[in-house]
Amino acid sequence: MKVFYDLHMHSCLSPCGADDMTPNNLVNMAALAGLQVIALSDHNTTKNVPAAVKVGREAGVLVVPAMELTTKEDIHVLCLLPDLDAAEAFRQYVYPRLPQRKNRPKAFGNQFVMDENDEIIEEETQLLNFGSSIGIYETGALLEDFGGLAVPAHIDRASYSLIGVMGNVDPALGFRVYETTIDCDREALMEKYGFQGGFISDSDAHDLIAIRDAERTLDVETMSPRGVIEAVRRLGETN
Fold this sequence. Notes:
By secondary structure, the protein is α/β, with parallel strands linked by helices. It is built from eight helices and ten strands.
């Protein structure tokens, strides 16, 4: 079954996310855009995922638990997780491995945790947009331990990307699926850096206007987070 997807979105919990990227706003805007599957992937946290999942059930949008992890090399990795328990366990693993610095909202932005009614239930004090102590070479296997899948994010960008930081794609990393920006020339990218694999493309939306209309599809066998993860994983097995 082919479904329209966008697996990289930020809520108002990400310090760089707009304050109006509330669970209701982002899920319902995705529904208006024709998306059937989205992932909420805030920086180094999953605390707004439960609310988004609840809203998604009402709106008819499958919300996949996710996180955009920042590795110690300052590489962003999209981490897709199979359920809320795994998402919370992964968050608890990541938090002690972040720099123990308090957020300064005026400098970095607000970090709002919300419920399914868009009520603020917490202001996250841990600064979320700095690199963790988790290395890029351990990230793939680490996500497998949590039942999830690690996908290097927006690899065609100059900053915070696998290629931008490392200058290449080392096969020893073990990744087989990569995320690019929506308008990336994938064939040129693969030819230039000499690697193979599957691809997904996402909006990386930090505000409502950046949520793109439904265009890209995944072939899923089951309409569930696990089904989506397996569909993404299969892209790397066939390329």
